[in-house]
Amino acid sequence: MIKIANAQLWVHDQDEALAFYTEKVGMEVRADVTLPEMDSFRWLTVGLPGQDDVSIVLMAIPGPPVMDAETREQVRNLMGKGFAGTIFLTTDDCHASYEELKGRGVDFVEEPEERPYGIDSSFRDPSGNHIRLTQVRELAAL
Amino acid sequence: MAFVPPARHLLRAKDVADGHYNEPLGVDDLAGAAGLSRAHFSREFRRAFGESPHAYLLTRRLERAAALLRSTDRTVADICFAVGLKSVGSFTTSFTRTYGRPPTAYRAEFPPASQHALIPACVLRAYGRPQHRTFREDSRLDPA
Question: Domain containing B67 — which CATH number?
Fold first, then answer.
């Protein structure tokens, strides 16, 4: 059986991303390991309490030799334009989750709105990654 | 201090268009969100995203209007105002130019919303947003 374990987002600053996802979104740290032998590479993952087997890797954009300077610049530009990554979160109560996250300082792009498939909202992380927060309507109710 | 790439302030303006298209919002407001003068903003926005902020905002509104035509029985005038446009006449003209038929004819071609699949809003918005079409207004309307 194959399962999803981690999905990766590029972030401009791992400390900033860590603070955002733990303090504002309510995630927990799953792994935070720095490897001195690998040029201080930092493996940093976060996830949601109650969903232990899926994590998000908050990955710093590497420089050479992993990524050449031009590619690094392209990735940064894509992130700046908002086209780098998206995470789709679900909630059982979009309005309540919206209020909770907003209360902790998350700046929403789209407030909760009714859609044919449920109630949907969105925000961005400090690196420009697009996060959706959706209360999916029960299929039976459609 | 975190690295901030040059396009991020433009993305902020694009997000304002996506989140507040239903309000009486214009290019000046988007320029304000990016912290730039209108002319400079229009030029920078076009360079980053390949179209003018005016065209982005209009097609964002037309995409939402098309969705409302497909999924609700609200009147054309009601939908025009609901997506932040002020003139039903201009709305009908822009819509017809973009979708190849007037709003009422467009609505008649599509089944009700309950038959739609569970596709996230951002995907529908991004992929459903029409290409901006003009006759010859481009050079006149978009100085940038």
Answer: 1.10.10.60
Whether chain B has a CB inside 8 Å of the CB on A65: the answer is no
Mutation to test the B interface, candidates A72, A76, A123, most B Cβ within 10 Å: A76
Residue in the block written with tokens 């979160």? A89
Q: Which residue has tokens 């309005």?
A: A95
Asked, for residue B111, whether it belongs to a domain, the answer is yes
Rounded Cα gap, residues B53 and B57, in angstroms: 6
Phi, psi angles (nearest 5°) of residue A108: -80, 140
Split into its structural domains, chain B has a count of 1
Q: Do A116 and B71 touch (CB under 8 A)?
A: yes
For residue B139, being part of any structural domain is answered with no
Give all domains of chain A, ordered by start, each with its CATH number: 6-141 (3.10.180.10)
Inter-chain CB pairs, A–B, below 8 Å: 70
Q: pLDDT digit string (tens) for B7-65? A: 889 999 999 999 999 999 999 999 999 999 999 999 999 999 999 999 999 999 999 99
Chain A residues with CB-CB distance to B14 below 8 A: 82
The conformation of residue A105, written as its DSSP 8-state character, comes to: T
**SS3 for A122?**
strand
pTM score, whole prediction = 0.78
Q: Which of A111, A118, A130 sits opposite B122 (nearest CB)?
A: A130
The pair of three-digit structure tokens given for residue A140, joined into one six-digit string: 């039976």
